[in-house]
Amino acid sequence: MNTRFLGTLCAVADTGSLAGAGRAIRLSSAAVAEQIQALERDLGVRLITRLGRTVTLTDEGRAVVGAGREILTRVADLTQVAQLGRLSGTLRIGSVSTALMSVVPPALRHMAEHHPEIALKIVPGTSSQLQFMLESSEIDCAITVRPIFETAKEFGWHLIREEPLTLVCPADLTFEGVEECLSSASMISMYRNSPTGRIAERFLQDKMIVAKELFEIEAAEVILVLVSQGLGISLLPNYGFRSSAERRFRKVAIADRAYGRSIGILYRRGARISLINTFHAAIISAHA
């Protein structure tokens, strides 16, 4: 069996079409179809069904894709082992949006300057999406909020930084204290089922504050825009956002660090750990 054909099947699963898969892996649609047919012959099962331009995986196809991603990861790991300690290869990194804007850019510059032989692929996503991608071997590591539950032994954690919970309000809003502000002003909340939303909700419950919720949004940057427009206030982790002439707001840190969030790299242990450690070191160095 040609493992490249497994990669082609995974590309079909990701894009939903032969043409989309071809664009992703730089092959013609005909070449993609030929590779899928060869894989079907090798395995003796039907892997896809076609309806017009749309391609759907069969039950057997879904099973093969699930196992195939793991096989492709192992093959890539073998390539890394074969380099005899040389730092080279591809590292697939997932990142939550706030880290993508603050943590990642300086780290990428550092990697480009000091480790150009390491190819980096960056994938955005929410914490839950990234964890699923990590478990299914679609990425090697994720810059994300530290999981509140215990992870399996095959996963590890590198802390990047602690982000204190912060009250964000319009620049011209006056108030006596944080709790008074949270009780009286309209609240623009982070999505409650997100890690950040749960932290803010726990703070409000512990302080017995009943907020006047206006919106619930899972997008910190959108919330900052709405706050700067005077629509309300919010509780966000301080991930490095700043007020500007175009987007004016005021930040007041919550003194109790128990309500902060930890941002770090959640990773799968394996042969690529040297690349992950190098990327972590680049983040720390870039933000020193």
N to C succession of SSEs:
HHHEEHEHHEHEEEHEHEHEEEH
Q: Might you state the CATH topology name of the largest domain?
A: D-Maltodextrin-Binding Protein, domain 2
* Count of individual domains: 3
CATH class of the largest domain: Alpha Beta
Give the mean pLDDT. 88
Biggest sheet details: 5 strands, mixed
User: Which radius of gyration do the C-alpha atoms yield?
Assistant: 23 Å
Q: Examine the secondary-structure arrangement and name the CATH architecture of the largest domain.
A: 3-Layer(aba) Sandwich
Number of helices: 11
Q: What strand order characterises the main sheet? A: 4-3-5-12-6
Uncertain runs: none
Task: Describe, in plain words, how this protein is organized in 3D.
With about 290 residues, the protein is of the alpha/beta class. The chain folds into 3 domains: about 5-80, Orthogonal Bundle (Arc Repressor Mutant, subunit A); about 90-160 and about 260-285, 3-Layer(aba) Sandwich (D-Maltodextrin-Binding Protein, domain 2), CATH 3.40.190; about 165-260, Periplasmic binding protein-like II (D-Maltodextrin-Binding Protein, domain 2), CATH 3.40.190. Helices cover about 45% and strands about 25% of the residues. It is built from 11 helices and 12 strands. Strands 4-3-5-12-6 form a 5-stranded mixed sheet, sandwiched between helices. A 3-stranded antiparallel sheet has the order 10-7-11. A two-stranded antiparallel ribbon has the order 1-2. Strand 1 and strand 2 form a beta hairpin. Helix 2 (about 20-25) crosses helix 3 (about 30-45). The longest helix is centred in the N-terminal third of the chain and has 24 residues, at about 60-80. The protein is elongated. The model has no long low-confidence stretch (mean pLDDT about 90).
